[in-house]
Write the C-alpha cells for this entry.
Amino acid sequence: MKNILFAASECVPFIKTGGLADVVGSLPKYFDKEEFDVRVMIPNYRMIDQKWKDQMVYKTSFYMNLAWRNQYVGIMEMEYEGITFYFIDNEFYFSGDHPYGEIYQDIEKFAFFSKAVLSALPVIDFKPDVIHCHDWQTGLIPVFLKDTFAQNPFFWGIKTVMTIHNLKFQGVWDKNTIQDITGLSSYYFTPDKLEAYGNANYLKGGICYADEVTTVSESYAQEIRTPFYGEGLDGLLNARAGSLCGIVNGLDYNEWNPWTDPYIYHHYSAANFRREKKKNKLALQKELGLEENEKVFMMGVVSRLTDQKGFDLIECVMEQLCAEDTQFVILGTGEPRYENLFRHYEWKYKGRVSSNIYYNNERSHKIYAACDAFLMPSLFEPCGLSQLMSLRYGTLPIVRETGGLKDTVEPYNEYEGTGTGFSFANYNAHEMLATVEYAKDVYYNHKREWNKLVDRAMAADFSWDVSAKKYEEIYRKLTY
Ligand code: ADP
Ligand code: GLC
C-alpha cells in the first residue's frame, strides 16, 4: 500500500473558489484503493459551513515554530465518501471571510500551512510516500522537506509532486520578509532557487524542489514553456521539461450528471435530451425573469470575471452578443468593470440578459443544464472545468483554442460531421463573435446537426478514470 497526501488550499465540498477545489475534492476518490491510501489536508477556514464543522473530530494539537513565531496547530479529521480529510486549525490565519486575502497576509498564512502540513505528519502517524502539492499555496512544502525536516528520519524518502493549476499565481513577495517568515537561510534566496526577479516566489520553490511537476492539460504543459504563457518562469519550466507533464482534469461524473442532479429542474440523459433538456430552459427563464420561449438560443457564462477568462473580448462585442434572437445568462463575480458591464446590459435588455453577480453552486448547475451553448473565450486556460460540465449537460461550448479548452473541445466540422463544440484560434473579439454567429446558424437552421453535436458532446468521456491512472503512474515511478 502506498500512502499519498494531497495538500491544497481548497477542496469541495468544504471550500471552493474555483476549479482547484473541484480537482482536489474529486480526484482522490478515483485512485485504486487496493494500492493507494490517499488523504487530503486543507486549512480549517472559519468560513467552512457549520454542517461540515459538526462532523470534524478533534485529533490533536501542538505548537510549531515559524521562524521566531510560535504558532498553534490544531488537527481536525473527517472521513467523507471514503477519503480521510485533515483540517489544519489556526484562528489567527484562517478566520477571514474568504480563503484568500491581501497577498502579504496570504504569504504568511500559506508558509504556516505548508510547514504545519509537514509538522503534523509524525503527530498523526501518517507517513506519505508522496506528497502531492497543488498551486503556490503549497509550493514551500518541497522546500521545507529538503531543508527544515531533512534531519528527521521520519521524512526520509518522501517524494513530492507539484501540480500547477494556474501559473499566473505564484505567491510572490519580497525576499527579506519571506526569509523572516519561513526561517529559511539566505542559501535559498538565489535565482536558481526561490528568487525570481528580485523577489521570493513560492511556486518557483515548489517547481525547483519537487521530484515531478505536472499541470492540468497537455497543451498548457507545452504553452508554459513559452514566454507568452510562461509568466516569467518559462526558462525554469524548460529546464525542468524532463520532469514536467500535462494530465487533463476529469470531472466528478456522479456529482455532474443531468440524469440525477438534485439541483436541476428536469432530469435528462443522452437518450431524451431532445425533449427534456428544454424544460430546464423554460424553468430557468421563468426563474430569472427572461422571456419564456423554449426555441430561443440561450448562451451561458459561469466564471470568475477576470481577464484570464476573455471578458475583454466579450466587453468589446457585448452589444452584438445581446442580439434579439439570443438570451445571455451570466453567473460570476470578479473585477468590478465586468460586474458592472453585465449589470448594465441586464438593465438595457431586460428579459433577454440575466446577470447574476454572485457565487451560487446550485444556480451554476441550473445554467449548465438550461443553456444551449456556453461561452468561454479564455486568454489562457490551464484546463477549465466549466466546458467539461457543459459537455456533460449537452450544452455546446464555444471556446478559444488554448490550453485545456483546445484539448477537450473538438471543433464542429460540418463536412465530416464531427466535433463537440465550436472554437476559434486568435484572441480577437470579432473572431469570437463570428464563431458565436456560426453556432447560432447551426442552432437555428440546421437543428439535426446541432442535436448530433449534442449527442457527441454528451458521449465525450471526461470522467477521472483515465487521468487518475496517469497520476498513479507518476506515484509508482517515484516510489518504484
Ligand atoms: P477556474 O478554476 O480558473 O476558475 P474552472 O473552469 O477550472 O476555472 O473552474 C471554475 C469552477 O468554478 C467551475 O466549477 C464553475 O462552475 C465554478 N464557478 C465559477 N464561478 C462561479 C459562480 N459565480 N457560482 C458558482 N460556481 C462558479
Ligand atoms: C485553475 C485554472 C483552471 C483549472 C483549475 C483546476 O483554476 O484556471 O483552468 O481547470 O485550476 O485545475
Remarks:
- The first helix runs from residue 19 to 26.
- The domain at 273-461 is CATH 3.40.50.2000 (Rossmann fold).
- The mean pLDDT is 98.
